[in-house]
Amino acid sequence: MGNIIDPQLVPQRTFYNGVTMPGIGMGTFGSDRFSAEQVSAAVAGAIEAGYRLFDCAACYGNEDQIGEVFKNAFDKEIVKREELFITTKVWNNMHGQGDVLLSCAKSLRDLKLDYIDLFFVHWPFANYHAPGAGGDERNPDSKPFNLDKFMNTWRQCERLVDMGLVKNIGMSNMTIPKLEAILPLCRIKPVAIEMELHPCFQQPELFQYCIDHEIQPIGFCPIGSPTRPDRDKTENDVADIQVPELVEIAKAHNVHPAVICLKWAVQRGQTPIPFSIHKNEYESNLRCTIEDPLTDEEMEILKTIDKNNRLIKGQVFLWEGAKGWEDLWDLDGTITK
Ligand SMILES: NC(=O)c1ccc[n+]([C@@H]2O[C@H](COP(=O)([O-])OP(=O)(O)OC[C@H]3O[C@@H](n4cnc5c(N)ncnc54)[C@H](OP(=O)(O)O)[C@@H]3O)[C@@H](O)[C@H]2O)c1
What we know:
- The chain is globular and about 50 Å long.
- It has a single domain (7-321), classed as NADP-dependent oxidoreductase domain (TIM Barrel), CATH 3.20.20.100.
- Strand 8, helix 6 (204-212) and strand 9 form a beta-alpha-beta unit.
- Helix content is 33%, strand content 12%.
- It has ten helices and ten strands.
- The site of NADP nicotinamide-adenine-dinucleotide phosphate has 29 residues, from helix 8 and helix 9.
- Residues 23-306 form the NADP-dependent oxidoreductase domain.
């Protein structure tokens, strides 16, 4: 069956170990707004459109339904397993000894796969909150980042590679101070770091740190997550797709501003993983990577609209005694304890 957009034309990224991954993928976090059925239907449509990278996670609560879509696509020979690049993540309540394997086994069973292409530690600490927890909710058991505990989780990820259950491993929601402590201790270095990246939150230092260490940056919330739940919104947040410079560039290219966020991301070098259940949107999100690139001048203009506006602040993961969400992100250059 022919794809709407030829996956072979889509930019690819090559990890330090030689493995390749598409330069754009589809997010699958339906959050409170979209059911597992809506998200999995979009995944089915996205495979037909030509997407080959899907960003899943145990905590998104929809791997079972997405797995049905993958199985159907393989059974009907719409796509071969080796043509898809599928990621998933271990959630914060499964960092303990033996739990990472259990989490991976559950994701494999739900996704109906016999290996994962890229397995992430979703957050660098085991601070659990139930799905949908309000922004002010705190778990009294939450603790600051602990290097030994994190390395215990990472060692389990390394063993998943040894066992052949996952091909590559990565980290998410990291900071430079944490990476400085972690990377020298890794037997298997992360191939990718998933982090929030959009024009109003470019994280230039962390982005460059990843490039310098041959780690592929993967950008979540690439459009500025306009549909994120209210608990993840604060009054000072800026909407990327309404920033005048970006809107102006969108007009020049005759596309929605969302598409400009994605062109910028792919041309800059990260791998964006936009989410949408709407066919017209996810198709144009993929198509924009193979046509009508931004000019160098437009890329320069977009560089200037960074407002250091972190959207996913992670306040529900804070521990007793923490001052505020900034403590999660080591803003003074040292790991906050
Ligand atoms: N590692 C982590 O901790 C982490 C954290 C957050 C997210 N993620 C991953 O990143 C993915 C993406 O993040 P996200 O879903 O929060 O944000 P996003 O991709 O920045 O924004 C998604 C929203 O943008 C709108 N949109 C998408 N394409 C569009 C287009 N072409 N034109 C107009 N509007 C468009 C859609 O809204 P409408 O439905 O209203 O059209 C959609 O719901 C997630 O699904 C998840 O896989 C990972």
